[in-house]
Amino acid sequence: MKKHPLEGESIPRSHTYRPSNLHIVVRKIAYEYQTSLEANRYWFNNDPIGTHFINALQSTFPDGELFFIQAAVDGARILRQHGSIDNQMEQDLKSFQQQEAHHSQQHRLWNKALIQIGYEKLALYDNNLHNFDVWSRKHIPAKLRLAVTAAAEHYTASIAYLFTYVNQDLLRKSDAPFSSLLLYHAMEEIEHKSVCFDLSQMLSRSYMMRIISLVFISFDLAINIFMRMRYLLKKDGLWGWRHKVKFWRFFLGRNGLLKGLLPRILQYLRPSFHPWRTDERKGIEHIFGDLMIRDHIEPFKLD
User: Fold this and answer.
1) Is residue 107 part of a domain?
2) pLDDT digits (tens, 9 = 90+) for 148-160
3) What is the mean pLDDT of the segment spanning 175-183?
4) pLDDT band at 294 (very low <50, low <70, confident <90, very high)
């Protein structure tokens, strides 16, 4: 049995929990966002708090997705040198990269539309995140960047779970094309949710690194989303005390976002955790069918 390339341990099998019927499908979609934003700026249920939460969250994706791709590529390159990646992992990795690249492209167009209607500072946030990504590749080891990526992918899969099983209003009360893009993105995040985790575990099975990465990405996401969301609300003149109360209630209230998301996030702390111990594909496919009828969505183009 080959030895672990960095820690002298045997390399674990990477597909223990992978569903046998899993297909990581590369879909191609294209939407026009600016016209929809100009028609209804608060496209989620006419609610500026909920709308700007999703605007802020998705605005981290263009460069965030590229960071994920590069971390996976760099980690896989090390493992290939030791003959540690089989054909299934190679195919999953390729599909993961293609999905994430298209996600980045579409969310960059969404960000561009937001900038065009007056939220100019988002361009500065994008540039700062891009600069960090460039710096991290030079200064942060590949195995740590991959561990952070695996933790971040757990967040994106957990948000997809939240949209599907906990609070479907985030999809069902959103206008097209935003509902369609979020749904499409959620579907693909679920499909490839174990790729980076499996690669990370093959590169380093350090439980401490896994937990540190989760803590880091939790703070990083919280800070980035808070800064962007506050900016968006301030720009609209909606940062008085009443809106601040609504803001915190949205996250921390009885039916707040954190209550629905936190139990799912904390599953990552289990030593036996693997993303495919749960399978959310059927639930999100059901919502997809409903929204296709409601919004007259054409089937996604496939590669």
Assistant:
1) yes
2) 999 999 999 999 8
3) 88
4) low
- How far is it, in rounded angstroms, from Cα 117 to Cα 110? 11
- List the structure tokens of 80: 């290939």
- 232: CATH: 1.10.620
Residue 6 belongs to some domain of the structure: no
Query: Residue 273 sits in which domain range?
Result: 44-297
- Answer for the pair 108, 102: CB distance below 8 angstroms, yes or no: no
DSSP characters for the chain? Answer: -PBPTTTS-BPPPS-SS--TT-----EE-----HHHHHH-S-TBTT-HHHHHHHHHHHHTHHHHHHHHHHHHHHHHHHHHTTT---HHHHHHHHHHHHHHHHHHHHHHHHHHHHHHTT-TTHHHHHHHHHHHHHHHHHHS-HHHHHHHHHHHHHHHHHHHHIIIII-THHHHTBPTTHHHHHHHHHHHHHHTTTHHHHHHHHH---HHHHHHHHHHHHHHHHHHHHHHHHHHHHHTT--SHHHHHHHHHHHHSTT-HHHHHHHHHHGGGSTT--GGGS--HHHHHHHHHHHHHHHTPPPPEE-
Summarised one tens digit per residue, pLDDT across range 241-272 is: 999 999 999 999 888 888 889 999 999 999 99
Q: How far apart are CA 150 and CA 104, in angstroms?
A: 17
Angle in degrees, CA 41, 178, 64, rounded to 5: 105
> How many folded domains does the chain comprise?
1
